[in-house]
Amino acid sequence: xxxxxxxxxxxxxxxxxxxxxxxxxxxxxxxxxxxxxxxxxxxxxxxxxxxxxxxxxxxxxxxxxxxxxxxxxxxxxxxxxxxxxxxxxxxxxxxxxxxxxxxxxxxxxxxxxxxxxxxxxxxxxxxxxxxxxxxxxxxxxxxxxxxxxxxxxxxxxxxxxxxxxxxxxxxxxxxxxxxxxxxxxxxxxxxxxxxxxxxxxxxxxxxxxxxxxxxxxxxxxxxxxxxxxxxxxxxxxxxxxxxxxxxxxxxxxxxxxxxxxxxxxxxxxxxxxx
Length: 274
Fold this sequence. Notes:
By secondary structure, the protein is an all-alpha fold. It is 79% helix and 0% strand. The protein contains 11 helices and no strands. Helix 4 (105-120) packs across helix 6 (138-162), helix 8 (179-216) packs antiparallel against helix 10 and helix 9 packs antiparallel against helix 10 (235-263). The radius of gyration is 24 Å and the shape is globular. The relative contact order is 0.10. The mean pLDDT is 91.
């Protein structure tokens, strides 16, 4: 039937409709910037695109006079290093503890209340404690990401493990599989793609914790740079940095989605047939 709920865009239509909000936002910004600059040429709140391009060229492709570093790339490497460490530790903890909680009743009874309460603790509230305990170096920033992300990943993976059909576990035991073999051959292959999906959902909070920690105590990093130049109302630097962080997060999400599609194609096929 020719109703809008039954009509789907083609490949070109998907690109057009996806790009439309971005083009609209860019046009709206250009108009607002032009109006403010026409009223006050020294306005810094909405700099023109040319000013932002000049700022990016200065911080990304010109060595810093004091350190000799390309600041934008040095900040990016520092932030990605912290983010990778934090998410790596949180993911490894979730894989081990989450599967154990979902599969072994004694582990579930012992750890579920603790993890549930831990997930309710606001990570930003414990940031001063982390700085006191672990110092102002890299460790406290990595631990903040772990504290903020790991409980969510653990609980999600424990629930996904608990949702596995009991028939699978019973059949594996009937065939003589040990607990370790059931974990490796029955549970783990099904939980890995779900863990990747959970990590994708955690990217936003992880970036939030990272930027917050870098804003308070760091000497380099994307969050550090944003909060450093805000003193001078340098929106021509802040806005490109925000766009760069968003692009990095989007690329991370895309790569994880691509990883799931390439390594676990059966998951999408299973969802499609469900």
